[in-house]
User: Fold this.
Amino acid sequence: MDVQETTVACRDAFAELASPACIHDPYPFMRWLREHDPVHRAASGLFLLSRHADICWALKATGDAFRGPAPGELARYFPRAATSLSLKLLASTLAMKEPPTHTRLRRLISRDFTMLQIDNLRPSIARIVAARLDGMAPALERGEAVDLHQEFALALPMLVFAELFGMPQDDMFGFAAGIGAILEGLRPHASDPQLAAADEASATVQAYFGDLVERKRTDPRHDIVSTLVGAHDHDTDTLSDAELISMLWGMLLGGFATTAATIDHAILAMLAYPEQRHWLQGDAVGVEAFVEEVLRCDAPAMFSSIPRIAQRDIELGGVVIPKNADVRVLIAAGNRDPDAFADPDRFDPARFYGTSPGMSTEGKIMLSFGHGIHFCLGAQLARVQLAESLPRIQARFPTLALAEQPTREPSAFLRTFRALPVRLNAQAGG
Amino acid sequence: MRVVVDQDLCGTTGQCVLTLPGTFRQREPDGVAEVCVATVPQALHAAVRLAASQCPVAAIRVIESDAGNNERASTKPAPLPLAEAGRPAAEDQRNPGGPDGTV
Assistant:
């Protein structure tokens, strides 16, 4: 049971990722896994891929080598789905759908996530950012510590979502704790109490969205919910009410905690590597490079949450993945694979300077938004939130420092925070 | 050089539009990508190949043909081993040898 033993063989990478050592720093273990057991078979039978090239291939190969679970198979891959609302909702989200249903649903929602639409949101995102920083300034300037996670990193995506969904801000803030509970309950090997807590939160969200859909039906506005309600009412075959609600539920799950965690990680990178802050003081290209490097170094969702099922026996790196096996990918390990990113543990925005978003100067894909048909719908929305935030934080609070060590959520799946207390340093040299 | 987007395959991720906004755009009603140039100028050939290799669903096909050639060029398969949908060719030269092994 000593440390040496875990480095000789790993029985279950998912259990290892939940260990206190990995919650603190999962990357040494991920490196070991990638080097010694890159096609890992967990005790539960799940496979976990950790090399960049394998992950890219598996994500892109959806449809030929892999598929999502068919509706009738839900019980097999999610044994608790019969009794769990969260698992039932998860099964109806976009991430779990296959073409042609996936194509139909994704295109309905894509109109609100085109690059043009997201660019149009920039001014309101910038306004929200400025208002949140104004709100934090008095306490910081009095020398007090402020929890940047709650006050900014989590608040920003929630306010942006409130605007996108046409929801009162307070209603959105009310969801925050529930979303966290749902995410924990949905990861593989979650305990029964965790799943029960997730179901309770899901029921609240589901009921709220049921009401919201009705409100948008009688009083449509320029927001995503109204658009989707319109698509539903125009042709009920296009989008069922259940699909609509699980889609909204899925967007909250995908968009909230992940964006917040990446903002937190960006702040930590600014504080840990002051010599890299110059990227945030120049042109937009430098800011984008900084953002991509933060995303690469700390993927908020460390592994894929949806099953990819082998359509046939697949041999990968000398291991045979049997037909019908559930294959997951360890995104965070792929992002730190030296075969894709040289000196991968070094924080170096130059890797992404002047490249197309998500691709390094060497032509390697940054995996945090996934790849293939389930590529993150909100990728550009998240990037714009980060790009509008970081230079403003840098300019407004150049002496920002940690007040205490941040508190991480003890999650094996999401690398997120509970608190990130910051303060302003006395003047430089002081 | 010409470039085409397979609009049935397009995943509406908009990555190509971010990479080359003058070459690709997204249709307003559904976010599907379309090409907005008849031929790709020489200066953008490398960038278009890169955009094709980065497309998460491999929906972009580059048709390498000498400028001014007749229409037949468009029916030829792309000479580059660009990833076709769902095949393990992929964009990565260091792809693991394994995925082709069936049964």
The radius of gyration of chain A is 21 Å. Residues 3-424 of chain A form a domain with the Cytochrome p450 fold (CATH 1.10.630.10). Confidence is low (pLDDT under 50) at residues 1-7 of chain A.
